[in-house]
Structures are given as C-alpha cells and as structure tokens.
Amino acid sequence: MRNKMSSAQNSIPLRIGIAGLGTVGTGTLALLEQHAPLLASRAGRSLVVNGVSARQRQRVRGVAIERYRWFDDPLAMANDPEIDVVVELIGGSEGVAKALVEKALSLGKPVVTANKALLALSGTALAELAERHETSLRCEAAVAGGIPIIKGLREGLAANRITAVYGILNGTSNFILSQMRQTRQSFAHVLEEAQRAGYAEADPSFDIDGIDAAHKLTLLASVAFGVPVDFHTVHVEGIRHIAPLDIDFAEELGYRIKLLAIARHGPHGIERRVHPSMIPHSATLANVEGVFNAVYVEGDFCDRMTFIGRGAGGGPTASAVVADLVDLARGYYCPLFGEPVAVLTSSSPVAGIERRFGEYYLRLMVSDRPGVIADIGAAMRDHDVSIEKLSQHGRGAGPYNAVPVVLTTHAQGEPAMRQALKAISALPAVLEPPCLIRIEAL
Ligand code: HSE
C-alpha cells in the first residue's frame, strides 16, 4: 500500500497564481515553501506556486521570487491555462483586485482572497458569480488574520442559529490603544510603530477610523446570519478622538477602551456597529491586547465562545490563505456565506444605532468657573438623561483655563444621549468637541 506522502506526490498538483506580493503575499509564498510536504500530505496533492504578479517586479521582499513565473498583468495570470486557482492579495474594493476576482470566477477558477473591502461592498455579487460558474470564492484571511472565524461560523457552528458576533477586529487600532495605555505615548507615535511593523493598512484611516473593522463585521454578519453583505448600514466610528486622558479615566472607572465591532440579531432586526467602547476590566475582550483580535460568538445550541489570535501580519494571515488553498486542493466546496446567494435572507430589518440602549461615558473640556456643572446637569435633565457619576479633575490652568469633566450615565436610549450631547456641545463653557464613548456591558 502506498503511503500518504507518495500518493500526494503522484497526484495532480494544485497550481496557484498569487497576485500581490506585500506582507501577506510574501508570507504566503514562505509558508507554501516551508510547509510543502506537510501541506501535500494534508491536501492529498501538492500545492505549487505557478505564477506571481505584483505592481513592481524589482523590489526587496525578503523572499526570492525569481523562481516563479512572472506576470505583469494579473488578469493574464488568471487566464493562463497552467493556473488552477487565483490568490488575490492586491487589496482595494475596486480596480485591478475586483477585475481579477471577476475574471478568475468567470473562467470557473476558484479564488482565495484576503480582500475584506472588496467583499464587504461586492461580496454578494461575487458569491453569485462564483455559484454561476460552479466555482469557489474563499476569504478566511479577510477577517481576523489567523483566526479561523469564517470556518468557525460557517462550518464548525453550522448547526446553530447565531444571535451575536462581536469583538476586536482591527489589530492596528487594538495595538494603538494598548500601546497608548501601556507606554503613555501619543497616538501619532504609536500609529507609526504599527505601520513599521506592517500591521496597518496602506491607508491608515481604514484602521483608525473603523472602516477596516466595519468591512470585516459586514462579512461576519453575513456568514453568521445568512444575509447579503450590507456595509452601508454599519454605524462606524474610529479611535482618533480618544485621548490618553480618556484611557486614564476609563481605568479609574474600571473599564478599558476597545474598538468593538458588534453584530446582533435582535427583535428589531440586525444591528451592525463599530465604535470605541468601554468594557469592564474583567471582560475577556478587555484583556486582548496588541495586534491580537478576538471574536465572541453566541449560538442557540453551542452557547458562547471566544476566538482569540493574531489579527494581522504576514504569518497569521498567510495561515488563513493557505488553509483555504488546502480546502480547494481537497476538493471541498462551500458557498461563500454558507448558503447559496438565492436563499440568503434579504428582508431582515436593520436595527440602526438609534436602537442602542446602554450607558455612556462623556468627557468634556470646560472653562473652570462657577455654574458650568449646573449647565451640563441642566442639559442632561432637559433630555431625560440620568447621570450616574460626575467628576471634575484638577483646576484649570494656563490661558485656556480648561479642565476635564467626566461623567457616566445610567442606561438609556441613543437618541436622548445624542440630543443631550448636542446641547452640551453648544454651551459656551465647553471648549472642545466632547468625547462620547459607549459603555458596553459584556
Ligand atoms: N490592518 C488590519 C488590522 C490587518 O490592523 O487588523 C489586515 O486585516
């Protein structure tokens, strides 16, 4: 009897074309080379890179690419008869990346992509295109780097109705918030550090303004709840306005600030939101630090669980890309969102941010003079918002004479809080735009 390895060596290899040779592309090349025998054994056939394409051929990459066939044009690579599967690691929701994925799928070739922006905006149409051409579109690497959360939801938890999926989906912003807390360095300094480490997106605003997390949340919600992608209904706020001061006040109040991405299937419909949140110190997610991501899932039969792992970087993301390639080599097929596009529930109502009911933290920079606290209290009273705690920190100094006032509220609806915030922002004594952070009871 032949052993597994020799049968793997004798069967037809899966010929892979990789477009995009940045951190993830080169990580994928390195992984495929380093684990070639192991992967062949697991897939029952070898996984061979038979073409690469990137914007620049001559660039120091840390991996030698001369041995691979080079394509200036990734679409020509997709068209090549000696390429069986296309790995799209170019990124971007339009342009070459989209054209490449459409081209490969139209040719009936499977595609593996890490492109959350593309899928968050065009995932339903691309999944439909894959189905029409009886091929596969896979995206494990698009969400939470090395954490197998797409597979976890779609395959491991396929027996459940999922009611909630939320967590920390952007490694860069989690790294920034963690570093700011631990080192007391400025936001700008820590962002540079994240960019040097290769975590941040090419356009860092995607990371720090919550857009990247919203792209990922869109995909998770579709897989979890069996609905078409709906990026435009995600409420998105980023972390630019979080000051070291807020991080300190959060600690004093027993909270930690995290950029949370939250999707829930509740009585009012599907809720999708990304914003900085204060969560209790003791919560599992509060202790997920640095570039790590974490995803909490609640299902009717499985109950609750949390996945934690590295959400960015070449190695972890390559691990997810190659897991999809192994599935393809094994001949495993599954619709992108776990159900064919035709049966996704397109009629689920959207529960917008105005449906949120919970506690809030508010930090104001105000003039240090009599009557200011009374004015703030009156604005809250006028909008029926109940204050839980209120404190002024220190005395105002310098020409600006500004002093921080911090308050937390009892649980109430978002619309009332917004009205109160508007009234408070308009007070002459309020010197800077207020910082509002939702407190999430996890
Ligand atoms: N820039 C992303 C992050 C990694 O910081 O999480 C890729 O998804």
Summarize the structure.
The protein is of the alpha/beta class.
Distance between the termini: 55 Å
Helix proportion: 25-40%
Sketch the major β-sheet: 11 strands, mixed
Which parts are unreliable, with pLDDT below 50 for 5 consecutive residues or more? Answer: 1-9
Structural class: alpha/beta
Compute the number of strand runs.
Answer: 16
Spatial extent as radius of gyration: 24 Å
Query: How large a portion of the residues is in β-strands, by DSSP E?
Result: 15-25%
How many helices? The count is: 15
Mean pLDDT: 93
Small ligands present = L-homoserine
Global geometry: elongated
Question: How would you sum up this structure, described in words?
Answer:
The chain is of the alpha/beta class. Helices cover 37% and strands 23% of the residues. It is built from 15 helices and 16 strands. The chain has helices at residues 4-10, 23-34, 36-43, 74-79, 95-106, 116-132, 149-156, 171-183, 187-196, 204-208, 211-225, 244-253, 314-330, 372-382, 414-425, and strands spanning 14-19, 47-53, 85-88, 111-113, 137-138, 162-168, 235-236, 255-266, 269-280, 292-299, 303-310, 357-367, 387-392, 402-409, 412-413, 435-439. The strands form two sheets. Strands 6, 7, 8, 9, 10, 11, 12, 13, 14, 15 and 16 form an eleven-stranded mixed sheet that branches. Strands 2-1-3-4-5 form a five-stranded parallel sheet, sandwiched between helices. The model is unreliable at 1-9 (pLDDT under 50). Bound molecules: L-homoserine. L-homoserine is lined by residues 170-172, 199-201, 207, 212, 311-312.
